Hints:
Blueprint: H1 4-8, H2 13-19, E1 26-29, H3 37-45, E2 55-59, E3 62-65, H4 79-87, E4 91-94, H5 105-115, E5 121-126, E6 141-148, E7 151-157, E8 180-184, E9 188-192, E10 197-201, E11 207-214, H6 219-230, H7 234-237, H8 248-264, H9 269-280, E12 303-307, E13 316-318, E14 321-326, E15 329-333, H10 338-347, E16 349-351, H11 352-358, H12 364-376, E17 380-384, H13 388-393
Antiparallel strand pairs: 1-9, 2-3, 2-4, 4-5, 5-11, 6-9, 6-11, 7-8, 7-10, 12-16, 12-17, 13-14, 14-15
Helix pairs in contact: 10-11
Amino acid sequence: xxxxxxxxxxxxxxxxxxxxxxxxxxxxxxxxxxxxxxxxxxxxxxxxxxxxxxxxxxxxxxxxxxxxxxxxxxxxxxxxxxxxxxxxxxxxxxxxxxxxxxxxxxxxxxxxxxxxxxxxxxxxxxxxxxxxxxxxxxxxxxxxxxxxxxxxxxxxxxxxxxxxxxxxxxxxxxxxxxxxxxxxxxxxxxxxxxxxxxxxxxxxxxxxxxxxxxxxxxxxxxxxxxxxxxxxxxxxxxxxxxxxxxxxxxxxxxxxxxxxxxxxxxxxxxxxxxxxxxxxxxxxxxxxxxxxxxxxxxxxxxxxxxxxxxxxxxxxxxxxxxxxxxxxxxxxxxxxxxxxxxxxxxxxxxxxxxxxxxxxxxxxxxxxxxxxxxxxxxxxxxxxxxxxxxxxxx
Length: 394
């Protein structure tokens, strides 16, 4: 499965962000191998009743999740019952398919690195030309990738700009005409911005498509973050005394709020928000097995460190140590090791010897403690020799 660049080609990322992100749909042809029936069958054949919350069916706008009639007594998936429901006109929904198929790892890495967001990939399988969901809009952007067969899509545009709340969204007028309609063929990708009304229907032959969700940052997210920051200020946590409009306590609180916003809502507020978001984002994980299990107990020149944290970690001084936060976990290290961490973050991995060379003023034990602290925080894995386990995982 390709990364983001293959889904938007021939556009560059900058062109896609300028012209389409959150604004207008895009149809592209993916010039790369895609998972198809073999990968989907493999996941179904290994599914158990523990996965039931990921499965659902839709037909004629009725959606049912967590079905209880498609399981064998041994906990396996009753595939004959699944096939029967699909032949009967249901669309089968396999949520979080990317957790069962590693083919989406490149796209997951791209979205995580660009947006500090995890990717969720849902798959939809249908046969009969019946409406599964009807015209609707999603509260996230979607890349719909046709993995097998073909599907007919209709896009109706927006009734509200960048909506977030389904309960407050303007309904689609009766008789609305599509702004675009057509077939999505195997290997094609349709980008649908958040809030764009759309519907899809099969053509009478088996169709399998993947919907990759993308949640981006909004101004409302920044304001929510400022509200969370306000809770760190005792004056803003204080209860307001009851009283008539303009009561002295209300006026005091209003001044405190205005002062807080004046101090915090500066031109760099979005950059500060994004830095905090990057610090709190969970690092992308790899198992690194079996190499990570046999790495030397003592960090030495024979060890490779593979790093998963932010590419530009926010670092500050606290007393005699430097501190950064990765995945919400504080990592403390000696000031002389700053360049070693920057080397790791820039390249995503390095031999321990290269980290020593990057921080010549640091004691070797301090560099080793940095590597160990990163691993304890889930932001790195140490492997002996080369990055064998990492390469295999990717």
